[in-house]
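Batch manifest, entry 17 of 40.
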Amino acid sequence: QVQLVESGGGLVQAGGSLRLSCAASGRTFSNYNMGWFRQAPGKERQFVAAITWSGGNTYYADSVKGRLSISRDNAKNTVYLQMNSLEPEDTAIYYCAAKVSRFDIYYPADRMRYDYWGQGTQVTVSS
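Output type: structure tokens
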């Protein structure tokens, strides 16, 4: 069983920044491919960013390219989402997700391919 705990959400003005963290349990975090998704009220959960187990590859939704950056620290079992130039449209609950086998074909933007999810952290961007 893998537990994921997100933190770092909050209320910020448009143009501001936040850094989200996702701490994972388990001794094999370095084997996990990790993703961030978000869900706004009344909308489906959508892909935001993902990073492979080694950190060698990152993926982003077009809407966040150049503003959001995903990274990981395998020594701390943590993945981060640095969010800059935030816009009101970024308001959502942000979830991290883990795909625990690095040997499977990885579809970073497909939420159905992830094995574990955190409880989410709220990000609110005011205009």
